[in-house]
Specification:
Elements lengths: L5 E4 L3 H6 L1 H13 L3 E3 L9 H5 L3 H15 L4 E4 L2 H14 L4 H12 L1 E3 H7 L9 E8 L3 H7 L3 H7 L3 E5 L15 H4 L1 H16 L5 E4 L2 H13 L6 E4 H5 L8
Parallel strand pairs: 1-2, 1-3, 3-4, 5-6, 5-7, 7-8
């Protein structure tokens, strides 16, 4: 049955522009789980920045594009709780006054998953072939945690990685300060939240901070480097699970 699952990979604009390796890692994980993966070549943005800024018109145009490109897939999977959360949680509101499209959108929402949630609860992955020699600490990204219920799934998968040990940080569920456009509008507050996150993560002594959203990754890694830390790695969970975390762990 797994081999018949047609999964649309929603790469996300940040991954496409800033760290394509996450997209390739997600693709590898989905194919290893027995899925037929479709990656629409013209995909762009889920519409979240516009939606969060009150520009419903542009957000709706982008959402219609997502609907057209991914509607035929059995599932839609994104290596981001934020983008998956936008589709699943906010598209029904975006289309609330578009009755002719709302039912189609609801069907899309029902089959949209964050990557680790899909691997654990739909693909029922029981084995990860990757290894990582070291300790990691996991940051719970706000949207993945609160909109998509992503908490135990990435930890269950990381537990399958040979050599990896997970050490939880204090306040793991507290925002890192990115919050999409929040970090631009409230720079000082964002920087303080990022500092708190870095301090909690570093206190674990972990070799790497692992998480499931590239926005948070860029924010935490940027703050770490500005604080003078060039050693602690910041990795996407897909990179670790696919055994493609760049330098040797």
């Amino acid at each position: 049955m797994l081999h018949t699952m047609r999964v649309g990979l929603f790469v996300t604009c940040l991954v496409d522009l800033m760290r394509p390796s996450i997209g390739f890692a997600a693709l590898k994980l989905l194919e290893n789980a027995g899925c037929e993966v479709i990656v629409p070549k013209m995909q762009t943005c889920c519409g979240q920045p516009g939606y969060n800024s009150g520009d419903r018109k542009s957000a709706l145009a982008l959402a219609r594009k997502v609907l057209a490109e991914f509607e035929a897939c059995d599932y839609v999977v994104a290596p981001s709780g934020s983008c998956a959360g936008m589709i699943r949680t906010h598209y029904p509101d975006l289309f609330s006054d578009q009755p002719q499209e709302l039912e189609r959108v609801k069907r899309l929402c029902e089959k949209t998953y964050e990557l680790t949630d899909f691997l654990v609860n739909v693909a029922k992955l029981e084995r990860i072939s990757a290894s990582f020699d070291g300790t990691v600490t996991y940051h719970d990204s706000c949207a993945g945690l609160r909109e998509m219920g992503v908490k135990i799934q990435p930890r269950a998968l990381l537990a399958m990685v040979a050599g990896l040990s997970l050490k939880e940080m204090n306040e793991t569920e507290t925002c890192c300060g990115f919050g999409g456009t929040f970090s631009i509008k409230f720079g000082d507050i964002s920087a303080r939240l990022a500092d708190n996150k870095c301090e909690n993560a570093l206190a674990t002594g972990a070799d790497a901070i692992v998480l499931g959203d590239l926005g948070c990754m860029l924010n935490i890694e940027g703050r770490l480097r500005r604080r003078g830390d060039t050693k602690t790695k910041v990795l996407h969970v897909a990179e670790v699970l696919a055994g493609e975390e760049g330098d040797e762990g």
